[in-house]
Specification:
globular
Length: about 110
């Protein structure tokens, strides 16, 4: 089960890293337009962290990864990530390439399990 936990953790870290890189490529005015205007942010890192927390949790794949990681920590062996289907990914705006990446990951996960 440790291999599964590590595999999920690596994917979560990769997704966060890729999302952070996308955000850092944006001009600051565009980042500012996505922020909660009522809150004050002192650094660009605070802004990026807020956006990561806000938008990554809306990502169906990412949220399932986190949920499954928590289930493993509690000793449960049910994986909701394995139940993600094409329609769910499409409804969240996944492209064909992104869906292919998800299915490749799921196949690798099944081999580890």
């Amino acid at each position: 089960m440790d291999k599964v936990k590590e595999f999920l953790r690596e994917k979560i870290d990769t997704i966060k890293k890729e999302y952070r890189q996308k955000l850092l490529r944006l001009p600051e005015w565009q980042i500012n337009s996505l922020l909660d205007q009522k809150k004050k942010y002192s650094t660009i890192d605070e802004k990026i962290l807020f956006l990561e927390e806000k938008y990554l949790m809306k990502d169906i794949f990412y949220s399932h990864l986190l949920a499954d990681l928590e289930r493993i920590k509690k000793g449960k062996r049910q994986f909701t990530i394995l139940k993600i289907d094409d329609r769910a990914l499409e409804s969240h705006g996944y492209t064909d390439k992104q869906k292919e990446d998800v299915y490749t990951f799921l196949n690798e996960l099944k081999e580890i399990i």
